[in-house]
Write a sequence for this structure.
């Protein structure tokens, strides 16, 4: 049987609150898939981590009177502890504030820009910070 290669990732939750059952469900399901593929003899890379950017996170840190990086560091520890408490088998825990992630994201951006895949443009939008989405007039109450 030929070994297959699998790349599994979860969403990277915002660290503006403690881990909750919804994320636990997602990561346990991803872990089950990773373990099954390993059991079949396949090579598996399984990533999870935390998204540590965004206006909500910055505002939460301000509310607590601490620097944003200090704020996200505390939550990253809480999310990292899920590995032991849920007996997870992920191979990489990625933080979007890590130097390696920042460098990779910047390189990706540069390549997309060089290919003409992204461009700068001004436009007006109604933005909901709480849900982190653009809103249309029909969605406003």
């Amino acid at each position: 049987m030929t070994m297959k290669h699998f790349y599994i990732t979860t969403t990277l939750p915002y660290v503006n609150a403690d881990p909750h059952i919804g994320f636990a469900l997602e990561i346990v399901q991803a872990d089950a898939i990773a373990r099954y593929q390993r059991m079949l003899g396949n090579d598996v890379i399984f990533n999870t981590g935390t998204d540590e950017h965004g206006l909500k996170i910055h505002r939460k840190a301000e509310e607590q009177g601490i620097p944003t990086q200090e704020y996200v560091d505390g939550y990253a520890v809480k999310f990292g502890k899920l590995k032991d408490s849920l007996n997870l088998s992920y191979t990489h825990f990625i933080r979007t504030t890590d130097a390696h992630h920042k460098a990779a994201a910047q390189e990706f951006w540069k390549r997309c820009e060089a290919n003409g895949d992204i461009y700068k443009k001004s436009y007006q939008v109604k933005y909901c910070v709480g849900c982190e989405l653009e809103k249309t007039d029909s969605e406003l109450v």
User: Anything to note?
Assistant: DSSP finds five helices and five strands in the chain. The helical segments are 21-39, 55-64, 68-80, 82-85, 99-114.
